[in-house]
């Protein structure tokens, strides 16, 4: 029985892949990868490595999560090194914990290989620091797309009244509802917000606006997209470096 490496691929720019993840990609017998992992990473694999795509999009899942869990188990019976390559970090809304629990149940050895999360790297490439002295001392990372089987939202909206920077991952299609909810809890309509599309990649694009107008400005951006809410958005005009 082999080992499954639940590996973070970083936010998109291939040079943000960690050295350990790079080594494991080179050594892997099979790589199970998702939609957000840069496909150029696969070019670094050894000859004969098997590739299995299990990406998820809003309208289509190539394989349900339960079947991905079982797939990893079955592959561990066949291969010595199984790399499960996930965009960003495997434990930041990456379902790495769910996969690891299944592997634990089946008696399979696994390791977590951290990756640079898009929650920090994407705003940074866009010139938006998630914290900045004199502006904010903390930040929150929130899912913008909750599990459909949850009857009630688990997002603690009332806690967002503070001056934290709020980062929503996977929330573009729910942007209208997110902004309305933030206004409902007391955020000013003119509060700054940014939507960053395809962050850290060559075609990165950022749209700046307010809670009142960002939906109309950013709704047609391509995914993946990340949402940043907070006064730190105003720093982009001085700190923008990558998109130039």
How is this structure best described in words?
This protein is of the alpha/beta class. It has two domains: 3-113, Tetrapyrrole methylase, N-terminal domain (Cobalt-precorrin-4 Transmethylase, domain 1), CATH 3.40.1010; 118-239, 2-Layer Sandwich (Methyltransferase, Cobalt-precorrin-4 Transmethylase, Domain 2), CATH 3.30.950. Helix content is 25%, strand content 23%. It contains seven helices and twelve strands. Strands 3-2-6-1-7 form a five-stranded parallel sheet, with helices on both faces. Helix 2 packs across helix 3 (96-105). It is elongated. The N and C termini lie far apart (49 Å). 38% of the residues are buried. The mean pLDDT is 94.
- Structural class of the secondary elements? alpha/beta
The CATH topology assignment of the largest domain is Methyltransferase, Cobalt-precorrin-4 Transmethylase, Domain 2
Form type: elongated
What's the CATH C level of the largest domain? Alpha Beta
Report the mean per-residue pLDDT as an integer.
Answer: 94
What composes the largest sheet? 5 strands, parallel
Strand content: 15-25%
Q: What number of domains? A: 2
Give the uncertain stretches in residue-range form. Answer: none
Q: Helix and strand string, N-terminal first?
A: EHEEEEHEHEHEEHEEHEH
Name of the CATH homologous superfamily of the largest domain: Tetrapyrrole methylase, C-terminal domain
CATH architecture of the largest domain: 2-Layer Sandwich
- Distance between the amino and carboxyl termini: 49 Å
């Amino acid at each position: 029985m082999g080992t499954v490496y639940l590996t973070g691929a970083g936010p998109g720019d291939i040079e943000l892949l960690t050295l350990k993840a790079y080594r494991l990609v080179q050594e892997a017998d099979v790589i199970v990868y998702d939609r957000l992992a840069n496909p150029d990473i696969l070019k670094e694999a050894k000859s004969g490595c098997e590739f299995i795509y299990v990406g998820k999009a809003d309208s289509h899942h190539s394989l349900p999560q339960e079947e991905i869990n079982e797939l990893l188990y079955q592959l561990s019976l066949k291969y010595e090194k199984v790399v499960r390559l996930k965009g960003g970090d495997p434990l930041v809304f990456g379902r790495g914990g769910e996969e690891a629990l299944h592997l634990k149940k089946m008696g399979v050895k696994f390791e977590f290989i951290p990756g640079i999360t898009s929650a920090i790297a994407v705003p940074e490439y866009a010139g938006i620091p998630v914290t900045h002295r004199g502006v904010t001392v903390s930040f929150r990372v929130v899912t913008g797309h909750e599990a459909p089987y949850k009857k009630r939202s688990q997002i603690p909206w009332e806690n967002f009244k503070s001056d934290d920077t709020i980062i929503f991952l996977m929330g573009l299609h729910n942007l209208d509802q997110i902004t309305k909810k933030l206004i409902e809890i007391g955020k000013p309509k003119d509060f700054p917000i940014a939507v960053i599309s395809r962050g850290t990649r060559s075609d990165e694009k950022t749209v700046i606006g307010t809670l009142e107008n960002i939906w109309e400005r950013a709704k047609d951006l391509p995914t993946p997209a990340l949402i940043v809410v907070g006064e730190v958005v105003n720093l982009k005009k001085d700190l923008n470096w990558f998109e130039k």
